[in-house]
Amino acid sequence: xxxxxxxxxxxxxxxxxxxxxxxxxxxxxxxxxxxxxxxxxxxxxxxxxxxxxxxxxxxxxxxxxxxxxxxxxxxxxxxxxxxxxxxxxxxxxxxxxxxxxxxxxxxxxxxxxxxxxxxxxxxxxxxxxxxxxxxxxxxxxxxxxxxxxxxxxxxxxxxxxxxxxxxxxxxxxxxxxxxxxxxxxxxxxxxxxxxxxxxxxxxxxxxxxxxxxxxxxxxxxxxxxxxxxxxxxxxxxxxxxxxxxxxxxxxxxxxxxxxxxxxxxxxxxxxxxxxxxxxxxxxxxxxxxxxxxxxxxxxxxxx
Length: 303
Description:
The protein has twelve helices and four strands, in the order H-H-H-E-H-E-E-E-H-H-H-H-H-H-H-H. It has helices at residues 3-6, 12-39, 44-69, 80-93, 126-131, 134-149, 152-159, 161-174, 192-232, 235-250, 254-260, 286-301; strands spanning 72-73, 99-103, 110-116, 119-125. A four-stranded mixed β-sheet has the order 1-2-4-3, sandwiched between helices. The radius of gyration is 21 Å and the shape is globular.
């Protein structure tokens, strides 16, 4: 059963794009710190604050997401069908079994969270369990377990560090400037022009890092789709699930979707109530995901 893990091939093109995105993020990060150092900005307190917040997010992400979604951990006795599906996928992939949760909402969706394979949770909404058939639920949960296998929560937390630091600096200048101001001594340290420059640089870095992080998020969604297809060997089933979830959410009341928008980056399909520029989207378009899955369907059919 565990042999399938060894046959899980690497998508070199997708891996290269993710690597390049992280590399560019690192370059932007170093350039940002260099410019701040050159300008004499006292940014270490904000760096420490950002690191503490991201540390909390990293180590307690599962508890934070479960609390915000009102998800409840369930036992095999409470949700035998859901546990049976997770058991089957974990046996086929060699992954340690995560905790299993159900979200009491009619919005059909699912998500995975946790900093590692051994500290993870996979959750499905009641709406998903009610609306999808068995094979579709397997495909969705295989997608979420692919996120666990790829350690996506840890990757995205690290990738988001730069935008968090830049965001703190922006907020600091918006509310009166950072303590210590600009270096150089005397009045020069509080030079308004210098503060404006730092604010502009921080704003640019925030937007660029946000765009790169969202790009990385879209790549990782495609990687999880591919993982699901390789686990089930039936990409068409995930296509069916994605279309069904997307179609059901279009008919959901607006207030229900708005209440779930905070979890968009975790959901398999974002609960959006309006249009959004793809550059800032956490997920690739449904059309792009379907094209990849259709290509995998043909490839797997030829094997």
